[in-house]
């Protein structure tokens, strides 16, 4: 047996295969990602919408987080990372048995329990990001049905195909370091598609939908930004040099994207806005995600410049000129901040992935795999670089087609049971009609709520 310091000696609770440092980091990273959703996006959504929608918007995020966890441990994790049923989907099964949870995970030196939790927070934030396109009019009961259906029939397919070692795109060598495809392109496309089927907000809300609390919006955005340390830093499944590089690249790209978006706002609109730089933060975080640990620092700056400018153009300029973009009411512009930025990041990964860094992450020796086109041209291996770029584009096409089709089917099925959109009368009043609650009620104002009896039942009389 190898010689260990006394505090690292294996025992029944700490088997030899488990690395305590990796396990500790993975649990920390998962918690950071969880904090991006609860309270991060709960606060951001509650502050970025009109006051009358603050409770409903925050509640959609909170419900999704809880609902995904129950579905994830009941069947979702195994469908995403379990035994192969078909090349793009795993066999449904639970992850609640201690025998399974205490075994070594399929990757990393930690138990399945850690992996299940880590992958859950990624699945949860994907659904919460989709909600960003639907704020201000979706029927909450329809949302309650949408979350488990979309997780089961859409997210699990993308995750298995791209991240599971048995997935067809994973075997082809697609690079999605931490979820540029599985999470962000999927959320952006699904959100936009669902927004089409749900329908728009009221005309008055579409014309003026200012944040009710900019400081809350900034607090949520800050939690999102700092939480991304775990989002990308946890992707290597170890406390390694690749994790360190991924974290640094993440923040370099994000800061550059923020400054680029800010500069364009000042040049074109003559005014720096907090709302604008919040979008720049998000696009930078999204763009670097598929590449964080496989590109160099200078590449992260290039990606930041492009993520702060191309989504800016599609959101601020193209949005006002393109008929389909004007017609579909994507409340927070999820198509631009997540789909466009995610696609951009995926394609740039196919150009800028550095072979040595990619080998450190994927632990492969072959030069033919995971080579960005620019490095392929530089190293006289253009065919490998062109192939990698082609696989990256194929991944984009797959995720887009999957999400448009499955999201549409889910929305059409739900509206047979309940309306997807709230009535105009309810939309006019917002939270008070939907939940019987208001976000900011002064002392005594609660007496006006129709749900007074409900509050009395909880002892708040």
UniProtKB/TrEMBL annotation:
Annotated ranges, domain Ammonium transporter AmtB-like: 24-440
Transmembrane domains' residue ranges: 24-46, 53-75, 116-135, 142-163, 178-198, 210-231, 237-262, 274-292, 298-318, 330-353, 393-418
UniProt topology in membrane: Multi-pass membrane protein
Keyword annotations: Ammonia transport, Membrane, Transmembrane, Transmembrane helix, Transport
Keyword Transferase part of the UniProt annotation: no
GO molecular function: ammonium channel activity
Pfam families: Ammonium_transp (PF00909)
PROSITE patterns: AMMONIUM_TRANSP
Location(s) in or outside the cell: Cell membrane
Signal peptide start-end: none
Record's GO cellular component terms: plasma membrane
Main subcellular location: membrane
InterPro entries reported for this sequence: Ammonium/urea_transptr, Ammonium_transpt, Ammonium_transpt_CS, NH4_transpt_AmtB-like_dom, RhesusRHD
Family in the record: Belongs to the ammonia transporter channel (TC 1.A.11.2) family.
Cross-referenced PANTHER family: AMMONIUM TRANSPORTER (PTHR43029:SF11), AMMONIUM TRANSPORTER MEP2 (PTHR43029)
Name of the protein this chain belongs to: Ammonium transporter
